[in-house]
Design brief:
With about 150 residues, the protein is of the alpha+beta class. Strands 2-1-3-4 form a four-stranded mixed beta sheet, with helices on one face. The radius of gyration is 17 Å and the shape is elongated. The structure holds FE2/S2 (inorganic) cluster. The site of FE2/S2 (inorganic) cluster (FES) has 10 residues, from helix 5.
Amino acid sequence: MKRKEILRKYEARPDNLLYILHDIQDASPYNYVTEEDMEEIADFLDLPYSKVYGTATFYSMISQKPRGKHVIRLCDSPPCHLMGSESILDLLRDELGIDVGQTTPDMLFTLEITSCLGVCGVAPAMMIDEEVYGNLNPKKLRKIIKDYREGII
Ligand code: FES
């Protein structure tokens, strides 16, 4: 969906800012919002650009640089840490060949760290896009990555 179509879905109210940023990011093939996106949102909502930019940069879910088709967010809050998120992170680095904050050369995955996802009962946990995966272990993790690579998920 194009930027203008997305904006048309909303009333021009400042409290829609975050929803619009999310929608525009989701519609981007590279999972981010551009400067032009933010300028147009500012015009649409009649807000200063600095307000839109400030909101976009405040929320870690919104990116200002291109990311992979799938964004992996591994939880690193204490409960997940205790349950071995560090070894899961090592595995992800190995499996993807990238470090935190990087994107695979084929633009399929971006690897990020996040704080608690609210599913501590199934720690260690991660999200890929909107999907939560818990009770991670090496075998399960490899299978998930493989399924994304093959387009099964
Ligand atoms: S600490 Fe990882 S989901 Fe809560």
